[in-house]
């Protein structure tokens, strides 16, 4: 082989080697680019996750004060409702007590009228009770008694029963061997209860 041919062969071999080196460098650059791309993608995902976490934290921070305000308002509403319910019950109780007091006062004023009717009927004969006037008075008396019964006003039993200071007022004592000790032998004025509450005690005579 001539020297000239040898030089051409060496030059060709060198060019082939340079081309190979360039291909290797290009391949390495591609791999590096892919690796950098993967790293950048992972970084982007991590950054997105971090952003979501921050947004959720901010949402929680934003919602916590609102929840506290809502809970406080709900507590205030519950307290006000409870106070209103207590006020309503107290008002109803006071109204009921005022009505009872008013009804009791009216009944007390009616009882002497009833007493006078009963005294009047005791003072007339059976023949006089048959007169139109007496019958008219009897009708008025019965109407008043019916009204008192409707109001739950009841007379207190006395004669023949044992004296009870909660129901009776002893204004006289008498020695009576035929009656037991502490037994009521006579009633001077009838007593009454209004819804199981004594509004007038019976005035009675008690045997010793």
Q: What share of residues is helical?
A: 55-70%
- Rg calculated over all Cα atoms: 56 Å
Largest sheet: 3 strands, antiparallel
Looking at how many chains there are and whether they match, the oligomeric state comes to single chain
Polypeptide structure, described:
There is one protein chain. The protein folds into 2 domains: 60-151, Hemagglutinin Ectodomain, Chain B (Alpha-Beta Complex); 154-208, Head domain of nucleotide exchange factor GrpE (Nucleotide Exchange Factor Grpe, Chain A, domain 2, Roll), CATH 2.30.22.10. It is 69% helix and 14% strand. The protein has helices spanning 3-122, 126-129, 132-150, and strands at 153-155, 168-174, 184-189, 192-194, 197-200, 202-207. α1 packs antiparallel against α3 (132-150). The longest helix has 120 residues, at 3-122. Mean pLDDT is 79; it is low at 1-5 and 35-39.
List the helices and strands and how they pair.
Blueprint: H1 3-122, H2 126-129, H3 132-150, E1 153-155, E2 168-174, E3 184-189, E4 192-194, E5 197-200, E6 202-207
Parallel strand pairs: 2-6
Antiparallel strand pairs: 1-4, 3-6, 4-5
Helix pairs in contact: 1-3
Quick overview of this protein structure:
The protein folds into two domains: 60-151, Hemagglutinin Ectodomain, Chain B (Alpha-Beta Complex), CATH 3.90.20; 154-208, Nucleotide Exchange Factor Grpe, Chain A, domain 2. It has three helices and six strands, in the order H-H-H-E-E-E-E-E-E. The protein has helices at residues 3-122, 126-129, 132-150; strands spanning 153-155, 168-174, 184-189, 192-194, 197-200, 202-207.
């Amino acid at each position: 082989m001539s020297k000239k041919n040898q030089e051409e062969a060496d030059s060709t071999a060198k060019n082939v080697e340079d081309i190979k080196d360039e291909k290797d460098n290009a391949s390495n650059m591609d791999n590096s680019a892919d690796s950098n791309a993967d790293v950048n993608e992972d970084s982007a995902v991590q950054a997105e996750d971090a952003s979501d976490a921050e947004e959720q934290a901010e949402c929680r921070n934003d919602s916590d004060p609102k929840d506290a305000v809502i809970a406080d308002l709900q507590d205030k509403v519950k307290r006000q409702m409870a106070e209103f319910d207590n006020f309503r019950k107290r008002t109803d109780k006071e109204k009921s007590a005022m009505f009872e007091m008013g009804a009791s006062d009216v009944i007390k004023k009616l009882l002497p009228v009833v007493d006078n009717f009963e005294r009047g009927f005791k003072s007339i004969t059976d023949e006089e009770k048959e007169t139109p006037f007496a019958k008219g008075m009897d009708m008025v008396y019965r109407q008043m008694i019916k009204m008192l019964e409707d109001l739950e006003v009841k007379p207190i039993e006395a004669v023949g029963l044992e004296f009870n200071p909660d129901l009776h007022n002893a204004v006289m004592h008498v020695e009576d061997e035929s009656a037991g000790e502490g037994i009521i032998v006579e009633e001077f004025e009838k007593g009454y209860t209004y819804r199981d509450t004594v509004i007038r005690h019976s005035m009675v005579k008690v045997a010793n």
